[in-house]
Amino acid sequence: MNVWLHRISHCYEVSEPLLEQNYLTIGFSDYVEKYESYPDDKTIQENFEKDMANIYAQNFRQRFNLRKFLFEFKVGDLVIVPSWGKFSVYRILDLAVPMIRLPQEVLDAAKINAYFGKDGLLWEKKTDQEIDLGFFIKVEPVKQNIPRDGYCSSALISRMKIRNATAMITGLEKDVLEAVRRHEENNPIDFHDEASKVIRDHLKKIILDKLDDIRFEKLVLWYLKKIGATEAYIPAKNESGKEDGADADVVAIFELFKVIIYVQVKHHDGQTSDWAVQQIAKYKEQKDQRDDPYTRLTWVITSAEFTDDAKSKAQADEVRLIDQNEFAEMLIDVGLEGINSAF
After folding, report:
1. For the Restriction endonuclease type IV Mrr domain, which residue ranges apply (predicted)?
2. Which of 83, 84, 175, 244 could in theory staple to 153 by disulfide, Cβ–Cβ 3.0 to 4.6 A?
3. Closest CA to 298 of 258, 342, 251
4. What is the pLDDT, as a whole number, of residue 207?
5. CB–CB of 297/320 below 8 Å?
6. Which domains does the chain possess?
7. pLDDT (tens digit, 9 = 90+) per residue, 17-37?
């Protein structure tokens, strides 16, 4: 499948309503008579260059547009039709044929005040002037009126600015399909989201490659202070009162909200098991004091992902799981300024 760009600005007052009826057009009506005189497509193509020179001029550059339209557009190809501030995508259903074969009912449905003359060309009734549209292709809409702003890649926007009436843009097929998908889902390009994805992936790699478990704990500590913890600290590993594997690597107190967050921090690649959930859940259970005003929350932050068992255990024990992607996004949202002070 190829992807094409094709403009219908030529005789727009007729080509646009015809496209609304799913007929894509091009000019070159002067060539129709010669085209129709040949017995088959092979003869048409063999004589094309000579006919262009005789009818128009030697080295007539616009002939390349017609060549693509007549001989290179194939059934199943996609065609991008740009318009002011937007564009539409169509799929080719049939090969190009002369306008004389356009059904009269199509003209009527398009409300075009025109008729086919004895020469087989299209003429405007009001002025009795020829309409320079020579050929058409039957198409079906894939997606219409996609705004350029917010849905197109910069490469696709740039390509739609070229002056050529017809051009192959198959190299941008992914960009075209992505624009269609975004428009169907009403999901325009979000700069923050797109930038965050790129930064997030770099952060994940840096956290895994450049930090160890101690430095990762310090990074989590810095984050909690950054979001407003009144007090945050890393408990001693031999903290008294811990039993049966209970453990927290970071504790943060938010005095204004009377909230304490206990965090179990895991630095490794791969998957984090439900043992981390058990550790922090038991820690909270052993630290809970029913006679104070604080609400105690439990988090597990990992540089990896979580197993299904961990997710099930966390849901049962009301533990928040924060994997590598979410923590990287949390760092991005809070801002990286001053992050070196974490270490």
Report:
1. 208-331
2. 175
3. 251
4. 95
5. yes
6. 3-189 (no CATH), 193-342 (3.40.1350.10)
7. 999 999 999 999 999 999 999
Name the 3-class secondary structure at 63: helix
For residue range 267-294, what is the model confidence (pLDDT) as tens digits?
999 999 999 999 999 999 988 776 788 8
**Mean of the pLDDT values across residues 242-263?**
93
**Whole-number Å distance between alpha carbons of 227 and 140:** 53
Positive or negative, the CA dihedral 236, 241, 243, 249 is negative
Task: Please determine, for residue 343, whether its predicted confidence score (pLDDT) is greater than 80.
Answer: no
User: Could you tell me which residues come within 8 angstroms of residue 264 by beta carbon, excluding any fewer than 6 positions away?
Assistant: 247, 248, 249, 276, 277, 279, 280, 283, 298, 299, 300, 301
pTM, entire model:
0.62
Tell me which DSSP letter residue 302 carries: E
The values of phi and psi at residue 3, to 5°, are -120, 135
End-to-end CA distance of the chain: 54
Task: Record the tokens describing residue 9, joined without a space.
Answer: 């600005």
Torsion angle, alpha carbons of 265, 266, 271, 276, to 10: -60
- Tokens representing 331 are 């760092």
Task: Show the tokens assigned to 34.
Answer: 């010669």
